[in-house]
Design a protein that fits this description.
Residues 215-242 form a coiled coil. Its EC number is 2.7.13.3. This is histidine kinase. One of its GO terms (molecular function) is kinase activity. The chain is of the alpha+beta class. 56% of the residues lie in helices and 17% in strands. It has helices at 5-53, 59-69, 105-116, 144-197, 213-268, 273-294, 314-326, 350-371, 401-405, 422-433, and strands at residues 73-78, 81-86, 96-99, 123-128, 137-143, 310-313, 334-339, 345-348, 375-383, 387-394, 437-444, 447-455. Strand 4 (123-128) and strand 5 form a beta hairpin. Helix 4 (144-197) packs parallel to helix 5. The longest helix has 56 residues, at 213-268. The protein starts with a helix and ends in a 6-residue tail after the last strand.
Amino acid sequence: MLNTLSGRLLVLTTIFVMLAEVLIFVPSVARFREDYLRNRLERAQIASLALLAGDMLSTELEAELLQTAGVFNVVLRRDEVRELVLSSPMPPTIAATFDLREAGPFTLIRDAMMRLFVPKNQVIRVIGSPVQMAGLLIEVTIETAPLRAEMIDYGLRVLALSAVISVFTAVLLFWAVRVLLVRPIKGIVGHMQRYAVAPEDARGLIHPSSGVVEMREAEDALQKLQTDLTQALKQRERLAQLGGAIAKISHDLRNILTSAQLFTDRIEASDDPLVRRLAPKLVNSITRAVSLCENTLAFGRAEEPAPTLGMVRLLDVVDDVVEGERLAEDSREITFDLDVMPLLTLRADKEQLYRVLLNLVRNARQAIAATGNPGTVSIAAREGDEAWMITVADTGPGLPPRAIEHLFTPFQGGARKGGSGLGLTISAELVRGHGGKLTLKESNADGTVFEICLPKGDGMV
């Protein structure tokens, strides 16, 4: 019971209500004591009126009046004359004097608490103002035992009532918490447990329905989490299936491309100038394709192989990429603008850098070609003190918002119809393998700019 939220709340509510009642108890007892003493003053004043009405009272009648008033004697000051109106045999000592005419709340509380914790019966003097302006002051002497007994009885009744109120309030709050808080929480936990058993089953997704704002926010957050996780699990399954398929395809494709390599030797021996110029490009392309298959590069593997770093002349790699893209049918009205120093060398894996630039340049060319208008693909490079910076820019229509949101997410970051988004994902992974970073610097109606940052040192940029 105490290990549950509602059980602990029940106990805490009872304690807090009792604490509040205790804070109320102290001034209540102080007020009771003040009322008790003022009541004794009023009784004493009424008893003294009997003497003022006649000249003499018998001793028996005077004792009966004092007993009824609950005092030992009554002193009334009228017209600046202080006179003993009623009296009885007095105890020898008066322990304290209390003047109710000027007593503040803290004084009354202090005196009341002292009386509760002093069990000894004492005689005290009490001074107050007569009612109905029947004099300047009235003074009586009383014993404290009856006062203390009345205070204890009153306090016990207040505490008993406080206990009843506390329990009743705690039970109501316990029921309210069970209905408004614990039950919805258990519902959310139940949804989580059912979802954990079968996360692929869409029926396990929670449907927010709570009318409580905080609970509704929790349900909305859980629904989003479940939806994102379900999509991630489905995508992981697709990637696993893709990896198995690519492994099989790459095996057979490698054999086919190996056979194609055997024919390139005869092509290189051709006397046709155009063939002789293009033959090395064909050989390099087939060699890269064979290497691609041998290493199962098409994102089907868990990770890309570590780059083999060496000093690479960037312009050679850029020329290979651009020459291949210029052969595409849709590149006739596309201009390739190169701003790369001929002698600029950087430390990278030549084949992986080629793949990164090929993906970026091909995406740029296809984006421009999709508009049907002429355009320009620009490749620029510069060397800084700590890194080499390569930018690939185009004058295409820019990336759609969904592509920007899922830029490096496979199967979600495609910018064109039929695109898988794998190119940017692979490129970003290859650049990270170099310790660098691939970022989208700009994308709007004027075009798109990607930047590759490759560090000169061993640290990540």
